[in-house]
Amino acid sequence: MKLSVNTLLNETAKNPTGAVVVDGTLDTRHGPILYMEDVSVSFDGFKALNNLSLYIDDGELRCLIGPNGAGKTTLMDVITGKTRPDTGTVFFGQTIDLLSLDEPAIAQAGICRKFQKPSVFDALSVFENLELALKANKSTWKTLFFRLTGEQRDRIDEVLSTIGLLDSFSQRAGILSHGQKQWLEIGMLLMQEPKVMLVDEPIAGMTHQEIERTAELLLSLQGKHSIVVVEHDMAFVRSIARKVTVLHEGSVLTEGTMDEVQADPRVIQVYLGG
Ligand SMILES: Nc1ncnc2c1ncn2[C@@H]1O[C@H](COP(=O)(O)OP(=O)(O)OP(=O)(O)O)[C@@H](O)[C@H]1O
Ligand SMILES: [Mg+2]
């Protein structure tokens, strides 16, 4: 059965555990955090997304797979406001219509994105990179007079520990390994305390050990954050996935556990191009 956003909203209104707005703040501890319904995106008549509907639960770690050109990156572009859909509904929690917000407002609301290429500042230390990410939240005049509070230092330490770079805090980011740079970038996103993290192909170019560490890192973030991971490496997806969504030609082909989707004849057909 397909639920419309309105149905979901009504259901949530009846459901006392659904997310609610308390003192103007979105409380998203329960229920879906992202709703996409009937979303279509065309590029010169070609439908990159075709009536796509997707629901991500709060705190969930969801893996998104699908062949090249299936629309995975376009889907992330729609959520972050980079690409506007021609039709459809995109909601963050029950109350925030993402199609009414621009890119900076969506980021400010708590949806962040990790791109493939790390954009850490090589000349700064690991700690300074995280400090800078904290400042990026502040308005310019506040940045000018910015001093770290004890609480903020604790927060940086906590993130350093999460990303496994506590011992490297004073190292220049430029001398970090490729994997460490990727983790630092994830740490910079964590400084903004995002509710949703979108991660496109996180393990490209990583060593086997770095891949394992990245799996642990992403698993440790679920619950506190909702994470959507796009990845082609099936062994990696299997190691982190609870629920997998398979995209094909701009729509959801199927969803389920890794075992379920890999046994689905339609998925086999799409991947083998039969
Ligand atoms: N700006 C654009 N202009 C024209 N066509 C585009 C644009 N962006 C994406 N497309 C097309 O839309 C389709 C979906 O692209 P998208 O990048 O979302 O796929 P993907 O699933 O991320 O693929 P990959 O696994 O290769 O990264 C592709 O056919 C692509 O060529
Ligand atoms: Mg892509």
What CATH architecture would you give?
3-Layer(aba) Sandwich
Measure the end-to-end span: 29 Å
Q: Indicate the percent of residues in helices.
A: 25-40%
Number of strands: 12
Order of H and E elements: HEEEEEHEEHEHHHHEHEHEEHH
Overall mean confidence score, pLDDT: 87
* Unique ligands: adenosine-5'-triphosphate, magnesium ion
Please identify which CATH superfamily we are dealing with: P-loop containing nucleotide triphosphate hydrolases
CATH topology: the name is Rossmann fold
Query: How many domains would you count in the coordinates?
Result: 1
Order of strands across the biggest sheet? 8-9-10-5-11-12
If you compute it from the alpha carbons, what radius of gyration comes out, rounded to the nearest whole angstrom?
19 Å
Describe this structure in words.
The protein is an alpha/beta fold and 274 residues long. 37% of the residues lie in helices and 25% in strands. It has a 6-stranded mixed β-sheet, with helices on both faces. Strands 4-3-6-7 form a 4-stranded antiparallel β-sheet, with helices on one face. A two-stranded antiparallel sheet has the order 1-2. Helix 8 (208-221) links the parallel strand 9 (196-200) and strand 10 (226-230). Helix 4 crosses helix 6 (150-162) and helix 4 runs parallel beside helix 7 (178-190). The chain is globular, with a radius of gyration of 19 Å. The chain binds adenosine-5'-triphosphate and magnesium ion. Magnesium ion (MG) binds next to helix 2.
